[in-house]
Amino acid sequence: MASFEVIGGHPLKGEIVPQGAKNEALQILCAVLLTSEPVTISNIPDIRDVNKLIELLRDMGVKVGKLATDTYRFQADAVNLDYLDSEQFVAQGRALRGSVMILGPMLARFGKCQLPKPGGDKIGRRPMDTHFLGLEKLGGKLTLEGTDFYRIKAENGLRGTYMLLDEASVTGTANIVMAAVLAQGTTTIYNAACEPYLQQLCKMLVRMGAKINGIGSNLLTIEGVESLGGTEHRMLPDMIEIGSFIGLAAMTGSEITIKDCQVPELGIIPDTFRKLGIQLEVRGDDIYVPAQDHYEIATYLDGSILTVSDHTWPGLTPDLLSIVLVVAIQAKGTVLIHQKMFESRLFFVDKLIDMGAQITLCDPHRAIVIGLDKRNALRGISMTSPDIRAGVALLIAALSADGRSVIDNVEQIDRGYQFIDKRLNALGAQIRRL
């Protein structure tokens, strides 16, 4: 198990370029299974989860060619369906949450797929009902073997239908959309997710020949086509990294310019950090965060305590709440953090309390942060990363703290952040991989 040794208390300075979006990559890469023609994808992040998915596709028989550091060409013209019965496939599927998104493309194109219950972060219950209910409405027949192995078939093909999703699941919507584009007839999906990553997927599918209306809304109408062709696609920068770098700059009193942010795709993320008192300037497509010795949390108009909560798009992504919570530690004022979607994502606050933060965990979903206003620095401690986003939040806390911190299980961080130690060290951080 790898660890980071962090010597905190050093302000950073310079420019940093966000990686390609992990959450988009997991959808886009699975979409290559929908066609036998070449698909070229650029701005792919070099991170563990994405690399594992590329390895899975290659082992399934997809031809994979690396054209540049972040650019690959895929061609799924010889997919080996027998590989799905192998022990290696079962092991790969269990290790990677994103593997669930092969279901829709495989069912649409080949009429069947199977998958063990995928793994991923331990952040609470993450049911896959939306995926399966949607695919069943299109004509898939699901069987469960044991408690965690799924088989789904569409022996008579998929047929378009109307569906109201039980939740606006991003990955669930992506799976259903990828199945519906090759279904017979019209599919209408209401309460669809509309995150930028899902919009990117839909736009890519349209370039491949799909007929999708309502992109960017929660009502998608899809006219099925017989086949899809190849295309080229460039992924968005990762909005979670961008938010993490904004928070890092504020927490450590650093001057950082975040390059090539695709600012119009960030939604309310910049304004959420502004509510915490963080100054930031949009300069073209870059975000400049000046060094700040002080930032103050806003209140509501009646003076009551600000609440920051996650919500489906265009609300705040839940992946940034850990960052918001950490940044609030050194603000002036008080904020209530309400994590609605996952019941275990706030359980890392005990480490922050050990570092000197003033946080009250109200229940599994809510925490009150009373800001220190930078009167007292956090102190370095030894801790363990429980998941990707909490791991980076703890790294930000360690970089702002006095003294030495050790963060264990940083393989979790590697799953979502590309060479984060080397990139931050280039700005002046002191992070050593043990």
From TrEMBL:
Uppermost EC category: transferase
Record's keyword annotation contains Protein biosynthesis: no
Enzyme Commission number(s) from the entry: 2.5.1.7
GO MF terms, alphabetically ordered: UDP-N-acetylglucosamine 1-carboxyvinyltransferase activity
Alphabetically ordered keywords of this record: Cell cycle, Cell division, Cell shape, Cell wall biogenesis/degradation, Cytoplasm, Peptidoglycan synthesis, Transferase
Annotated pathway: Cell wall biogenesis; peptidoglycan biosynthesis
Biological processes, Gene Ontology terms: cell division; cell wall organization; peptidoglycan biosynthetic process; regulation of cell shape; UDP-N-acetylgalactosamine biosynthetic process
Residue ranges occupied by any Enolpyruvate transferase domain in the UniProt entry: 8-419
Active site: D121
GO cellular component, one term: cytoplasm
Residues annotated as binding UDP-N-acetyl-alpha-D-glucosamine: R97, D319, M341
A Pfam family: EPSP_synthase
Catalysis performed (reactions): phosphoenolpyruvate + UDP-N-acetyl-alpha-D-glucosamine = UDP-N-acetyl-3-O-(1-carboxyvinyl)-alpha-D-glucosamine + phosphate
Subcellular location, record wording: Cytoplasm
UniProt-annotated binding residues for phosphoenolpyruvate: K22, N23
InterPro entries: Enolpyruvate_Tfrase_dom, Enolpyruvate_Tfrase_sf, MurA_subfamily, RNA3'P_cycl/enolpyr_Trfase_a/b, UDP_GlcNAc_COvinyl_MurA
Family to which the UniProt record says this protein belongs: Belongs to the EPSP synthase family. MurA subfamily.
PANTHER family found in the cross-reference section: UDP-N-ACETYLGLUCOSAMINE 1-CARBOXYVINYLTRANSFERASE
Role according to the record: Cell wall formation. Adds enolpyruvyl to UDP-N-acetylglucosamine.
Name of the molecule in the record: UDP-N-acetylglucosamine 1-carboxyvinyltransferase
Annotated organism of origin: Hymenobacter cellulosilyticus
